Amino acid sequence: MMSNVKKKDVPLISISLVAILFIAAALSLFPQQSADAANAIYTFVTRTLGSAVQVLVLLAMGLVIYLATSKYGNIRLGEGKPEYSTLSWLFMFICAG
Predict the structure, then answer these.
(1) pLDDT, tens digit, for every residue of 37-62?
(2) Where are the transmembrane segments (predicted)?
(3) What is the domain count for the chain?
(4) C-alpha to C-alpha distance for 49 and 44, rounded to whole angstroms
């Protein structure tokens, strides 16, 4: 019989924790350099990649609208009656932000 106890991935947790602590320590010890680096990254992303990101989002929205209105939009995922109605889903998305 399989045990219901979930095993923890110790190496993954350890590496993640060390990385988070290292980044937090570096940001705390060098606040001005951290702010300068963050501003440089922000400027690069917004000035250099801003238009590309907008075009990719527009293409993704076009693909989603195409898929929703094509024959693929009627594919049922799973069996049985949906747990929530379409209107309930809409209000959940609106309330979630």
Answers:
(1) 999 999 998 999 889 989 999 999 99
(2) 47-68
(3) 1
(4) 7
The answer to whether residue 18 sits within a structural domain is yes
- Provide the token pair at 87: 């209107």
In a domain, 53, yes or no: yes
43 found inside a domain: yes
Full domain range(s) for residue 48: 10-72
HEC profile of 27-81: HHHCHHHHHHHHHHHHHHHHHHCHHHHHHHHHHHHHHHHHHHHCHHHHCCCCCCC
**What pLDDT, in 10s, does the model give residues 19-40?**
999 999 999 999 999 999 999 9
**75, amino acid identity:** I
